Structures are given as C-alpha cells and as structure tokens.
Here is the input.
Amino acid sequence: MVTVNHIKEQADKIFATVLATRRHIHQHPELSFKEFETSKYICSVLDKMGIEYTTGYVKTGIIALIKGKNPDKKVFLLRADMDALPIIEQNKTEYVSKNSGVMHACGHDVHSAAAIGAAYILNEFKNEFEGTVKIIFQPGEEVLPGGASLMIAEGVLKNPNVNVAVAQHVHPSMEVGKVGFRSGMYMASTDEIYLTITGKGGHAAMPADYNNPLLIASEVLLELKKKFPNDGKSEIPTVLAFGKIEGAGATNVIPEKVEIQGTFRTMDEKWRTEAHDIITKIVLEVCTKNNAKADLNIMRGYPFLVNDKTVTENCRQAAINYLGAENVEELPLRMTAEDFAYFTQELPCCFYRLGTGNKKRNCFGSAYANI
Here is the structure.
C-alpha cells in the first residue's frame, strides 16, 4: 500500500529534476499556440520516463496516459498549461528568459513541471492504483478562444472517457508550502469589449467644424460606470472595466475616431447576457445622441469556473493528509478567469491554488495570475 511517506520520498528523489525542468521551460517561453519547442521538450522528458503519450492536439498539445490496474475503471485527468506572456522579463536569475519579450509571468512553467513530477510519481506507483491518469499539456490558456475549449473539441475528454479533472494555478500571494481550495463557484466568466466611436475630426481651434469622439467616449464610459459601479455591492459579482482608450490626435488635432478596449466579468450566465444588452444599449444611445457612429464588439470569452463539491472536498482532504491542515486554506471568490472553466462545464472538477509566495525573500504577489 502506498502511503504519504512513500509519495514524499519519491517527491524528494525527483525534486532536482522537476526544478531543472521548470527552469528550462522558464528560460524558453513561447506565446500562446506557438509552444512548439516547449512541446518537443516535454515529449522528450516523457520519452525518458517511458510514459505513453500522443501529441499534435491544437498543434502543440500533449496527452500522456498512465495506466494502473484495471485501467478502464476510472479516468482521472490532470491539466497543465504551457504558454507564456508577451512580457519583458526583468529578473536577474540564472534561468531568465532567453526569448526576448516573452516570459512565464503567469506560472505555466511551474504547472508543466509539476505535471511532469506527478507523472513520474504516478508511473512509479501505477501498479498500486486502479484506473488511468490522463495528463494533458495544454496550449493557449492566455488568449481566446482558449486551448482548453479547442482540446475538448478535439476529443481530449474521450478515448478513454474522463470522469474527473483537476488543475492547479500558482498563487504568489499565498506562502509557499500552502494550497487553497474553494467548492462551488470560484472564478468569473470573462468577455472582451472592443468599441470604436467615430465622430468628425478637425482643427482644435475650430469647434464648429468637428465632433470630438474623445468627449463622446468619455460620456459613454461615465454612463457605463453608473450602471456598473464596480463597488462590490451588486447582488451578482460583476466587473466592467476599461484598460485602453486611444485617440490618435494631438494638442491641436481632434481625431476622427477613438478606440476603447475593456473587459466584462460576472458569475451568472443569465445576467451575463442581459449585461451585454445593457452595454450595447448605453453605447448606442450616447453615440446616437451625439451624432456619432459606434462599432461595438463584445467577444464572449471563458465561462465561469465552478468546482464540484465532492471532488474539491476529496482534494482538500488529500492535501490535509499530505501537508497538514495548517497549510490548507479556504479561497475567496475571484473575478479573474481561467479556461479550465470549460472543463468544469463538462465534468466534475477541482481547480486549486498552489502557494508560491515567499515573504522572507520579498517574493509576494503578482499582476499576472490569471486573465
């Protein structure tokens, strides 16, 4: 019988290998759906471990299978994402990114390395458990439509059919050595908003000759703020925020158009659809009143993420057994989003947090933990 101590012994045995794996992936980050070298590297590691796998899902995705006794009894899926972000790394570590302008700032290097470590341990004990563990290395978590939805469409949950899925995400605001769980609703849906407002450009000194789209855009944003105040008091958790507004004018030049980009997030599908209609109505009303044209595109993104109660409580208890109750925390709701949400819409799942903060080293918090 495999005990916690047996697993810890194996974890200690492979720690250096997993660390080296993480650092290699960190040094060679690749953007979403372009993880070709990362995929090759992970396949080479699986080859060394003698683990069965297939590749080519959404071009770079990998599915590894570890079959225990009675492999058809149940199939348990572990998911790790592989893509990095278009960020210039400013760290001074020996394993800093070698790909200029690309960085693993969201921890997917950790997710992939941890999945490889799990694969090693599971493979060592495959004669001690029943069922099959399917480990997937997924591309494109960072951008719509999300690699999870595409891998599901390509059959990742079939052959063999998956019963339960689990994934993790690094949590820099949680101390290393701890993990966090939350049953039920956990993370928000996420939609992208693209709005172009076209007025009439002209010379700033001649106000009768132009229709300033910057002022119209400001009015649109203020009207939306009234309806979506982001004050935390709404019955359904909701965020409407705009991070980009661009009008290519000058001190004395009024631009013809203004481009605005933002995000809408919530945790209720009915309200999500209603809110899209409200946003559209406000934009059109303000622009029509001001004799301007509005081109609005609300791109429906990832769904909300909901953790199955039974699966999550089983994972929580396993974490307590392994780490001790003092190292297992309850997580609050988050308005960030994750494409693992697509898995949670299909089958019982648990998405949990892995503490990676270190107060002693002043390594705490991150701006890039999820979309």
